Amino acid sequence: MTAVLGLGTAALGRPGYITLWHATDLDHAYSEAAMEQRCHAVLDEAWRLGVRWFDAARSYGRAEAFVASWLAARAIAPSEVTISSKWGYRYVANWQVQAMHHERKDHSLAALAEQLPESRALLGPYLSLYQIHSVTPESSVLSDPDVLARLGELRDAGLRIGLSLSGPRQRETLERALDLEVTGKPLWSAVQATWNLFERSVAPALVRAKQAGLTVMIKEVVANGRLVARVGDAIAIAAALAQPFGDVVLSGAVTPAQLASNARARELDGAALADQYAVLIEAPELYWATRAKLAWN
Fold it and tell me: Under DSSP, is residue 246 helix (H, G, I), strand (E, B) or coil?
């Protein structure tokens, strides 16, 4: 095992998400107070299990606020945790499970100027890594001189800058990003990408990112729940933890019991399991097309 377990909050900060059985896992308790209490319970279990990296985003509903209230309630110092978040999507579902749109993508300079102060207002000194949310080849953000210049300024002021990836061309996107410099210096401190037993195509670019000194975060390791039914959560997570390019593998648990089950992955031979289940590998286009059909619940 080369990576550590972290906790992502995409399914904890808003009442609707595309993880299978999300509604059942939440017991259909969608009030903000109920979801904050649940989020705190999962964060408490994460802390008990030794998890110290927590990832959020502006588009994850109230996730940043829930993490912030937990940090304050537990009197956890900034030096004791790593908190990462993202900009570039807005949450637009108005706290509804069923909505026409749940997120709206905006990688403009105006969006960065709006969302960074919002994240900082909630997370303050805890925010140590700020990522562009779900960069794809179709995004113009990697060729936007104004956005890149601003990110370079933030880098120079001490904020770690990263990007998360999405879609069947993750590898291409990351390879392009790794060639970018701003004012003659590398821009990125970290990358967050989807890697799981179904979708492994980004691996060569993650190796290059690791060699370049980036922190590599692996997300969607249970494929939004699809792998739970096929192999079990612990096996899927163990395979990700064992990848030589990984630093942090993000659990998407929404109950303390799920997180405890996820953590059992640390006891398994993930490298052998990754080899054993190579038969599950899907073409990237098929994987992402299947993901796109998952219902918000």
Answer: coil
Q: Are 188 and 174 in contact (CB under 8 A)?
A: no
Q: Cα separation of 75 and 48, whole Å?
A: 15
Q: Which two tokens stand for residue 259?
A: 């997180």
Residue 257: is its pLDDT beyond 70? yes
Q: Quote the tokens at residue 96.
A: 């509804």
SS3 29: coil
String of DSSP letters for 120-181? HHHHGGGEEEEEEEEE-TT-SGGG-HHHHHHHHHHHHTT-EEEEEE-STTHHHHHHHHHT-E
Strands 185-186 and 215-219, how do they pair? Answer: unpaired
* pLDDT per residue as tens digits for the range 75-126: 999 999 999 999 999 999 999 998 989 999 999 999 999 999 999 999 999 9
What whole-number distance in Å separates Cα of residue 222 and Cα of residue 273? 14
Domain annotation for the chain: domains and CATH numbers: 4-292 (3.20.20.100)
Query: Please, are residues 133 and 59 in contact by the beta-carbon 8 Å criterion?
Result: yes
pLDDT tens, residue by residue, 12-36: 999 999 999 999 999 999 999 999 9
Identify any residues that bridge with 248 across adjacent strands, giving them in sequence order.
Answer: 4, 217
Find residue 53's DSSP bridge partners: 82
Q: Are 3 and 249 in contact (CB under 8 A)?
A: yes
**Residues 8, 219 contacting (CB under 8 angstroms):** yes
What's the rounded Cα separation, in Å, for the pair 64 and 55? 9
